[in-house]
Amino acid sequence: AQKITQTQPGMFVQEKEAVTLDCTYDTSDQSYGLFWYKQPSSGEMIFLIYQGSYDEQNATEGRYSLNFQKARKSANLVISASQLGDSAMYFCAMRRGYQKVTFGTGTKLQVIP
Amino acid sequence: GAGVSQSPSNKVTEKGKDVELRCDPISGHTALYWYRQSLGQGLEFLIYFQGNSAPDKSGLPSDRFSAERTGGSVSTLTIQRTQQEDSAVYLCASSLEGSQETQYFGPGTRLLVL
Predict the structure, then answer these.
(1) Nearest CA of chain A to the CA of B64: how many Å?
(2) In whole angstroms, what is the distance from residue A20 CA to residue B34 CA?
(3) Which B residues in the span 10-49 are in contact with A, Cβ-Cβ below 8 Å?
(4) In which band, very low, low, confident or very high, does the pLDDT at A101 lie, cut at 50, 70 and 90?
(5) Mean of the pLDDT values across residues A49-63?
(6) How confident is the model over B50-80, as pLDDT tens digits?
(7) Cβ-Cβ contacts under 8 Å, B100 against chain A
(8) Residue A113 near chain B (CB below 8 Å)
C-alpha cells in the first residue's frame, strides 16, 4: 500500500525566510506523481506544485520548489521568502497510475512577522 | 473554465435525518473523489470514481454513507440517519486519469448535525 508521511505537525518561520516542509512516501512503483496542496483557514485546497517520478529536474513554481530525492523517497516542499499569506496547512500527496490519491496528515505553517 | 462546484455550501440538519451533498466536477474529468475533513484534521478519503470502472468505496465509514455518479459527471454523496460525528467539511475533487494529473478541489460543503 502507498503511504505518505509528514512528520511535522506544526512549523514556524520568520517572514522573508525560507522554510522546508518534509514529506516522505512509500511505494514500490516506478511511475507516480507527487503533489503539494495549500489549505488556508478559508478551507479551500489550492494546488501548488507537481513532481513526476521520472522528472530529472526538481519542480519549481514561483517561490515554491520541490526537493525531490527519489532514492530517499522524499519530496520536501521549499518555500522561499515566506510571506504572512503563506500561513496555512500544507498537504503532500501521491498518485500512482490510475489509483486513488493518498494524502499525508499535513503540516501547519505559521509565518511570524 | 469553471472549476469544481459543490452544493450546498452549508447544511445544518437534525440527527437522524438524511442529507444529500452534490458535486459538479470539471467538464471532461473522469476521476472524482469525495473526502471528509473534520476541524483541524487531515483529509479522510471516502470514495473514488474512476471513469467507467467500479468505484473504490474503501473509505466509506459505514453503510449509512453512499455515493453515486450519474452519466460520468455529477456526483451525489448521501448520508442516511445522520449522527453528530458526521459533522465535517465534505470536499469533492476531480481530475483526469493518470499519475501525473492534478486534482482540483471544490469549496466543500460544511455539514453540521445537531
Answers:
(1) 22
(2) 29
(3) 33, 42-43, 45, 48
(4) confident
(5) 94
(6) 888 889 999 999 999 999 998 879 999 999 9
(7) 33, 50, 52
(8) no
